[in-house]
Known about the structure:
By secondary structure, the chain is of the alpha/beta class.
Amino acid sequence: MNITLIALGSRGDVQPYVALGLGLRRAGHAVRLASHDTFRDLVTGAGLEFAPMRGNVQEVVNSPEMRAALASGNMLAINRVSARATQQGALLWAEDGLVAARDADLLVAGLGGLNVAQALSEKRRVPLVEAHVVPFHPTRAFPGAIFPPATARLGGWANRLSHVLTRQVMWQMFRAADTRARREVLGLPAAPLFGPRPLRSLPTLHGISPAVLPRPADWDASQHLTGSWLLPQEAWTPPPALEAFLNAGPPPVSIGFGSMTTPDPQATTRAVVAALARSGQRAVLLSGWGGLSAAEVPETVFVTDSVPHDWLFPRVAAVVHHGGAGTTAAGLAAGVPNIVVPFFGDQPFWGERVRQLGVGPAPVPRRALNDRTLADALTRAVTDTGMRDRAAALGARIRAEDGVARAAEVISGLSL
């Protein structure tokens, strides 16, 4: 089959689909991955065909409006900023998507590319497989990923309803932009009020480890929990300064918030450095898209823009991150305790899951992050023997899975 994957968003939103694309190519399919030009090297470096989708997510994330919204943690405010960016990008994505899907027999997309892919599926008359790295099908077992974890206290009915509402929140945010793209670019009528209808019913893939999130008993056979979609570890040589730092003392902790930004990176960095001093830890600080600053750090802290997670995480005592689905999967696969500092969206869901599994302390919400709260979490993560043992055992289970191969097997078995 000719398969086009559509993955929009930050690196954490894109990298799992690069891994999935590699698995599909190994299974004998021709694979094209459509994403922002920022990730061209990531895609082509993995040997996949790249199709550019215009737009710069980093510019949106670093805008004053989004920084303020992220700092507030208010999902409505975040959605408003995202909706405005979507209005600007939808026409371009429809145009670029038509090119990316020009000869496709099958489209594959997760949350980042789902709405675009649904319209393209209708236009090109090509079936679509939903492939998510967060749970995105109703269940009574746990709440929707963007709902507060406390929703579970209301019982199974509330959990199931929250999944329905999660899909509607994401669709309604995009609906006006989708209608315009359908009319002005694709020549299609507006989608129904509550969302597009699939061209045909196909299985849904969830690239999540069943060791992290057991398969809900009320999911039917069309819902597949395949295991995480992780890239094979690349042959990466660290800069000499980083290697020297790692060898100069006990294993440090890794701290980074990926694509998340803060209104005052210097203040966030000062809080992180003070927490390290209180807890007596060394650290590798991953500055990411503007959440941490390289200024005024002691010699016990090494600052770098980014390091491959699969190389760094197994070498540290604990991983502090924002709780994105991709980073959480990498952190848990490394077999070390995870400390989640959630900003918004599905991040509190993953932070709570880490706590429930006993492989990390209770999450430290971004608005509650200070030297004391982070120091307390760091101390627990590096001194709790049971937590370290559970994290190591969970990591071994995840690494023994082959979620990519399982997902490719499901897709290869489709009768189109």
